[in-house]
Design goal:
With 96 residues, this protein is of the alpha+beta class. It has a single domain, classed as Glutaredoxin (3-Layer(aba) Sandwich). The protein has helices at 2-12, 27-31, 34-47, 83-95; strands spanning 19-24, 54-59, 71-73, 76-78. The protein has a four-stranded mixed β-sheet with strand order 2-1-3-4, with helices on one face. Bound molecules: FE2/S2 (inorganic) cluster. FE2/S2 (inorganic) cluster (FES) is lined by residues 24, 26-29, 61-65, 68, 70. It holds the Pfam family 2Fe-2S_thioredx. InterPro entries: Thioredoxin-like_sf (IPR036249). This is (2Fe-2S) ferredoxin domain-containing protein.
Length: 96
């Protein structure tokens, strides 16, 4: 299972190392704005030519429903993420 997952991630990469931001898209987080956060990040990535560097991944419930929208980036879990905060999380991820 672990090897298959690594193979899948590797096949999605081209010549640069792509980084991932995970956004909960389950019911509570969606109600609290996760779809807006996801759309804003995707638009930011597209308008800044970052498609090879960053990928937004929708997830199922992370079990922190009262604190959504929940975002995971670089091993960190962020709660109640606004669009502005999500862009900062993405910029920070790409600086690493
Ligand atoms: S709905 Fe997002 S953590 Fe549960």
């Amino acid at each position: 299972m672990g090897l298959k997952r690594l193979t899948l991630v590797n096949s999605m990469q081209s010549d640069t190392l792509q980084k991932f931001i995970f956004i909960c898209s389950a019911k509570s987080c969606s109600k609290n704005g996760s779809e807006e956060v996801k759309s804003a990040l995707k638009a930011y990535i597209k308008s800044n030519g970052l498609k090879k560097e960053a990928l937004i991944v929708k997830t199922k419930c992370m079990d922190f429903c009262k604190s959504g929208p929940n975002v995971v980036s670089n091993g960190q879990l962020y709660h109640k993420v606004s669009v502005k905060e999500a862009k900062e999380i993405l910029r920070e991820l790409l600086r690493d």
